Amino acid sequence: MRRTVGSSAAPERAAVLAVLVAAFVGGAVVANRLAGKPVPFLRWSVLRFLLGSRRLVREGRVGDGREEALARRVVEVARPGDLDGVIELIDDFARRTSFLMNVGDEKGLLLDDAIVRARPLRLLELGTYCGYSALRAARVMPPGARLYSVESSAANADVAQRIWEIAGVSDRITSVVGSLGDGGATMDRLAAEYGFSSGSVDFVFLDHAKEAYLPDLLRIEDAGWLHPGSVVVADNVLTPGAPDYLAYLRGEEGRRWRTVPHRTHVEYQKVLPDLVLESTLLGVAQP
Fold it and tell me: Which SUPFAM superfamilies would you find in this protein's record (predicted)?
């Protein structure tokens, strides 16, 4: 008698497949660890990061405690006032302990160089996360400069503040919890409390929600905060990508903006490519 496959067969096959996939991934991660982690994405912290992507989008945190763990590591290990040491400690944590979605060491050099060239006195950062890029900015900003870092997650802003205090740069960085897309509340606060006004912003670093890059740049433009010569640097334009932002700047090339693309890699590895855009405002659109 021929046996008829019941409706339970498909779920059973799916369960077996899931077990096999989990076993394969687990074995690959263990082998990668034993080999000295030559493949950066075969790490438990990266897999947890990817699995926590929904919470990451919603809350700006991975959800497994890595941000708080980083703050504790800095407080416990770093020497107060040692800015270079704190930056190196965060890089080491991201490579060896838990992957972090900050700009990283490779792309951080591009950010450093852009700030050195621009010599800005008022900087605006969108996307604080754990405060790493703000540390790099503070290290190369000219005397008298101040960075205003806008972060939608109050928990992230708290982590960053603790790290800045240990590094000895909290007197040069102002944390602003909010979002430029919140109906004007944060932009009104930047204007009323911190003096953001016509032509007052020399440098902008974009490293927050990628879909907000273009809307927020247009908000800043419409507010008149930029001036000819203002520089905007954007991270992760290729991976995970900000295609509308890239298309806008390509369309404005030589008219309102001049952009230098920097081909690089996603933070803390050399496998996935990425793109950092460094754009300089020319002024009114040219014919």
Answer: S-adenosyl-L-methionine-dependent methyltransferases
- The per-residue pLDDT for range 179-223, each reduced to its tens digit, is 999 999 999 999 999 999 999 999 999 999 999 999 999 999 999
Q: What does pTM read for this prediction?
A: 0.82
DSSP state of 203: E
Q: Are 219 and 226 in contact (CB under 8 A)?
A: no
Residue found under tokens 């405002």: 281
Q: In this structure, what token pair is assigned to residue 178?
A: 């909010």
Q: Does 107 qualify as catalytic in the annotation?
A: no
- The pairing of strands 273-281 and 257-265 is antiparallel
Least Cα distance to 25 among 2, 40, 43, 12 occurs for 43
Answer whether CATH 3.40.50.150 is correct for domain 68-281: yes
Active-site residue, from 67, 235, 274, 278: 235
Active site residue 156: no
Cis (ω within 30 of 0) for the bond into 40? no
At residue 64, the pLDDT reads: 83
Q: Which residues pair with 148 in a beta bridge?
A: 124, 174
Categorise residue 229: left if φ over 0, alpha if ψ from -120 to 50, beta otherwise.
Answer: left
